[in-house]
Amino acid sequence: MMSRNQIVELHFKHLKNPINSCNSVLKRLTRDNFIKCSTLHSPYVYFNVDCNIKPDSIKIPHFLELVDTVIEMKAHRETKILMIEPKYGDKGTIEPDIFAIWFNPIFIEVQRNVYTKEVMQKKINLYEDYYDTGDWKDEPWQKPDKKVFPSILIITPTRYAVKVQNLKFINPLPLLTSLKVGQANQLYKPKLNLLKM
Predict the structure, then answer these.
(1) Do residues 47 and 1 touch, judged by C-beta distance below 8 A?
(2) Residue 4 Cα to chain centre, angstroms
(3) Verdict on whether the full-model pTM lies above 0.85
(4) For the chain, which has fewer Cβ within 10 Å, the N-terminal or C-terminal residue?
């Protein structure tokens, strides 16, 4: 799902009249039942026809934030691989919001709410457990001669005092808590190798 403005940014911004062009295409796609539109939001939010999320779902702001994150990432560099909410196993394993090859492999967690230290520690422990399994070495994007565990970027409105043993986070503190991906990019632009595990 995406808002009209996000669709403009991703697909129409290069045109002379991006908003009008986008509106015209979205009206046609909605009319022909290729997509659904929720008028409960402003700007309107558009869904795949087979999307099971209700137009008034509380999940919508989170998904829109993921799209904003992807848009910001693309403003700095195109991603080679981009997966939204990839699955790495059953419930109880890592559940990143985004996996991308962006500069280097990266897991991104977008936290809109403030959680307890214990909840964040549990999330970090899941990444530690996934690292320990070694399953990440078999991912199809891995280079045969050099296996790399993705960096982890957690975008959150607060800092958490969590303990990390085997993983490297993009931040010397150890969690990046900036609200924007661009700040992570600027932190490491001179030394992109710091993003590597």
Answers:
(1) yes
(2) 19
(3) no
(4) C
